[in-house]
Amino acid sequence: xxxxxxxxxxxxxxxxxxxxxxxxxxxxxxxxxxxxxxxxxxxxxxxxxxxxxxxxxxxxxxxxxxxxxxxxxxxxxxxxxxxxxxxxxxxxxxxxxxxxxxxxxxxxxxxxxxxxxxxxxxxxxxxxxxxxxxxxxxxxxxxxxxxxxxxxx
Length: 153
Hints:
- With 153 residues, the chain is an all-alpha fold.
- It is 50% helix and 0% strand.
């Protein structure tokens, strides 16, 4: 510690800073927007034609940091919850993936025709029988196309 700085003065200064500290925001964005007065004010702003960018600009001047996207997401969730809906957006039914179904069927039929034995890959050499089992060869590392296509200097 420097000679002029005493622990008691340091503790006093830190305690004073803690007492004077005002947080930038009190709670989460959702907690602040759920307040009925705040919600009504934002709905009024929307009715007057203000966009999310305009509303976020006002919130920033009040010390609430957010983005238009985050604001829209949070406020939309609050409005859905207020209408009696669930917290999240309703999930949409997914369309069936025809390509995945077709490949699953073709893979299943090829296994049945070969008796369930896996096919040997054409690009890989077959297993050799020997006294000692061979170690699996490691795949070659990927080569950058720029390096591969360079001409000899």
